Amino acid sequence: MAEATEQERTLENNLLNKIAEAISAISDAKHVDQVISAIHSVAVLLFPVDPSLFSGSIGDKYRERFSSSVVPSTDERNDWLETFYRGAAFPTFARVLLLDVASDWLSCFPISVQKHLYDVFFLDGPVIEVVQVLVPFLHHVGDGGVDANSVQTNVERLLILCLLENAGVLKITKEISDSYQGENFKNGSLKPLLSRLSQILTSIPDKARLKAPPLLSSHLYFKNITNQLLQILDDRASSTEANSTVIVLSFVGEIFSRICRRGLSDLLLSEVTPHVLAHVRRLLNSKMGSIEMETFQLDPTPQIWSKTMEAVTDPYAVEKMAEQLLHQLYAEHASDVEAFWTIWSLFHRNVIHQASVRSIFVDKFLLWKVFPIRCLRWILQFSVLECPPVTNTLAKGDVTQGLLETTQRLASVWSKREFLQSVPLEQQAYITAALGLCLENMSKEELDRTKDVMHSILQGVSCRLENPGDLVRKMASSIAFMFSKVIDPKNPLYLDDSFTGNAIDWEFGLQMAVGGVRSITNSMENEDGENKTSAALTEVNDSSRRNKEKNRKSKNISDFLLADPDEIVDLATLNCETESDKDDVDDNASVSSDNSSVTSLEPYDLMDDDKDLGKQFTHLVDVVGALRKTDDADGVEKAIYVAEKLVRASPDELTHIAGDLARTLVQVRCSDITIEGEEDSAEEKRQRALIALLVTRPFESLETLNNILYSPNVDVSQRIMILDVMSEAARELANSKTLKPKHEARGPLISNISDPQPWYLPSNASTPWKKVPETGSFHLNWANRFERELQSKPGQTKKGKSRRWSLKSADRDQNSSDWSQNKFPLYAAAFMLPAMKEFDKKRHGVDLLGRDFVVLGKLVHMLGVCMQCASMHPEASALAISLLDMLQRREVSNHPEAYVRRAVLFAASSVLVALHPSYIVSTLVEGNLDLSRALEWIRTWALQIADSDIDRDCYTMALSCLQLHAEMALQTSRALESTGGSSSSSTGRINISLPSGISKLTSIKLPSSNVHL
Amino acid sequence: MSKRPPPDPVAVLRGHRHSVMDVSFHPSKSLLFTGSADGELRIWDTIQHRAVSSAWAHSRANGVLAVAASPWLGENKVISQGRDGTVKCWDIEDGGLSRDPLLILETSAYHFCKFSLVKKPKTSLQEAESHSQNCDEQDVGEMCNFQLGDDSERSVEDSGFLQDGDHAEGTTFVAVVGEQPTEVEIWDLNTREKIIQLPQSSPDESPNASTKGRGMCMAVQLFCPPESQGFLHVLAGYEDGSILLWDIRNAKIPLTSVKFHSEPVLSLSVASSCDGGISGGADDKIVMYNLNHSTGSCTMRKEITLERPGVSGTSIRPDGKIAATAGWDHRIRVYNYGKGNALAILKYHRATCNAVSYSPDSELMASASEDATVALWKLYPPHKSL
What we know:
cytoplasm (chain A)
């Protein structure tokens, strides 16, 4: 031993001497050939250098020296090589090669020399050492006259050659296993080396310069590295040597985890997943049909993979990898079986042996993350059911403890009201689906064994069912359905008419909803739809007309018989023709017998229905009477159907009966009187009638409705209906150009807040104002100009071609919407104030701030609609302050339910839209700061919502609210300037000076400027 | 094959302010008479579809119950019955109604049974028309001093006028339900006298067996079958659903009694051939029956069950091809009179239909309804030869 080391030491000394010579030769060199010669003197000791390969490009003087140089024997050379790379020789010489030679001489090297004499030092040596030497030079800051650029370029080139093109990582693992076997490294000494090595390997893209070759960019680099690692794993799986495998796998695992730490788990898994999946598919195909646990347990490849994953000790990396795996499998459209085995192959050891990994799957992926529903099935199958699936359905194993525990946990989370209020919709849908899928796999006995699942589910369903969101209710009914199927499979509970079969769409159509702010364009779509249908109708008519003409050409009755049964036949022609034909026959026959002629009497369509029958109401008193007779369902229904018409006719009796009628209409129960499936039409009629009533006799009916609104003997649905009706009526009063009922479907709950007509336009005009189009941005354009067509003066007559028997002919002829007038402001106070007065009083059956939050939301929304309808009128300004007072209440503005917050945002936006700038200015000038404080509150509050709200609709609405606020502030500042200017110029002496407090207290901030008012 | 949808009315006559109770065509001119529940009698032009005249024939409170014109009555006369206990005969002078009725029959009946004029086979039409001219001239002078004839009963045999064909044509009879609603009375319009009552109460047996328990008479049809040598027959429908056929030669006992309906008979109509007819009642049945005058029997030919009960008017087209009923369910139903199958369900009216009537040339049908409209229909045009 001692002898050996002695020999090694002398060898090392010799080597170092040689290298020292070479280095000094290089530093003294005046010509490139001298450098080459020096390098060659070292290389020839270590590598089997063949001078003929590069001698052509070297001067004659040196060529001979090359060829004549002493070439050591192979054994000797191996000794040299080993010594060179193990000791200090290589780092020393490499430093010279990489710095001095590279910066001064390398560019002068002939290509062949560079390749065979220079690169060999880095390519033929052990990669472990080479990498450790090379990488630090990647960002070596050049000092001492070294050309940093060429040095780095060279290092990058060498790294690419070494690691990527020559499969350096593969070589590393070979070296590792060799050294493991050869020298029996203690784990203690190898582990730090491996971890350092993997650290160096994964840091290369970060250290590389920006202008480094693309192969060193993290994407391509790691892709290449990953592929090499996958190849290593395959090799390991096919070979039988077990000793070094563990250490190699731990190296691979280390690199995997470092790649994930660098945030490139998606890249990693995009390589790994198809690889594993392909193998799984191969296995599945080879074992057609009979897939058993053993198939996979005995196969070496999954073993290798799972061991690799086990070697990934970083839980964060495991989580990222698992997450990415699921996404990748989803993207690859893996089937349930394939996906299961892929996940199993990678993670089954981790899940069994590491509690933290298990909790990633069972807790994190179920409760905190949101995956596509198919991924959810895989997660459940793998981590909860823990058994292979049967073709594309979840299968249940023998061990159900995990399922019970998971279900219990899911159910308890799902049942909480706080969860409902504080979690985005997507996640709610996800957890609902998880719970539903768990329930699907439970039996009644298992359900009984759990402690409180049943209780939690009932609680969760009940608190969801009263939620205003459709989707939330649908979740509740889906879970209820599943639950009922567990309890009694033969008698499932359908809370919702919409789903009939057993299959439930656990995604709840959320894919569509994710797209953006929905529900705003509904009305537009409706219109389009109507247009389409009407177009389709005309088409049908056209085609039938064509048919008819065709038929008429060939005047043959048989044609009528053969014709399309749906066609519209012109009765007159048909009748006359057939009758006259018949009469000819008849005339001949009738002489002899009457009966023969009788046979030719051809019956008409004898279809009959009784839609038109029944008593028609002609007096509102009768209507009220009929509505009160709740035992006569037909009468009530008919009364509801005629009520609107009668109210619209506005007879004298209406004034006296409006209150009674409103009350009875509210109290009628549509569901009791109509047959199943037609509740909606009756409900709609009832609401139309109420709207008509509110529009025709606002004061009388509002008095009653406001009384009922907070009275204990109506339920939530009636309160909601009252509020809905009030907002609809307000809208109709505001656009009183059409006295007809609006035939649009019930609009979205929260409508678009941006009006087609900007708020700063004068609204009460006979012809609409149009903005004169101007170029330039909004902020630059300080003078918006508007124009409109003026109506002719009363005396002025227009000559026309046609006469009309009407006084209003001139107006009528034009667009009928022209003579619209907003009638709402007159009634605005009656609409709003009584409703606002008592909203926060908790009394028997009424608890707006707590349980009945839906009513609160509707109320706030209705008030917002009222504000919009009164927009730009002085009434709006008066009412805005009290409305804002209400909104500023913490219980209202920071209500835990997103529904209420949305309504408040809508109302606040409506206020911003409705206030006339001049009014804001006048309050400012008067020194009344209530309004400006309230407006400022809107801004801060909307900012807060936009920052931190969990509800998507809420923060988008908050953003538009902020936008409106900015616009309002801008207009106000303009108005302020103009008042100041005009008053001083016109009166001269009266100088309205702003109270000094204003500038400090109010802060209506302008967009894109620093001006504070 | 898809059926043709039922046609719409060719014209709708509006103008009445109340329920139109009855409708009747002029026997030869294109005129239509309608009477409404507020006592208004209107005359319409069926070509121009316009009201020609309007008059308050009966008091507003009582209204017109029935209105009728007939070739035997005369070219320019129309009779109206009010619920004020009178039957009035009016003269049509230049399109309008005479200011005062030609004659008033004080029947003192305040019920709902429409009166009936005589229906005769068409063969006697021509003679009747020529005769009616004479009637008019005679009536003018007698108009004012009309007195209610005494209630003394005359036997048919005594009067004997019915046996004489000429006499029969010169006389116009009208059958109404009398003061006692169980009794049918036949009045002579010329003499303004009640000539007979059915059943004829005999002094010895006061409660009449034949109508006992049948309730009020609800519908009556007077007709003159060709086999009966000009003797009038009466078909009367009663409250209990029975129909009695009388020959006035034997006023004590009806020829036959049948019970087709389970509810009051509301309308009876006899075809112009007088060998059968159609009846409707408050139940859900329409019955077509044959009358055999040689045996004096009435037999059911066809029973039609309706979806919704209540038929307040029936009419058979003069050519005997089709019949129509006016229903409480707002529908006019048209049937093939020969075979009895349904031909059409006409939906136009928005309230109970009160009456339906065919024009003498069979071209038009008019329906009267409580919705204050009269609709004119053209269905199954008749043979031009007729």
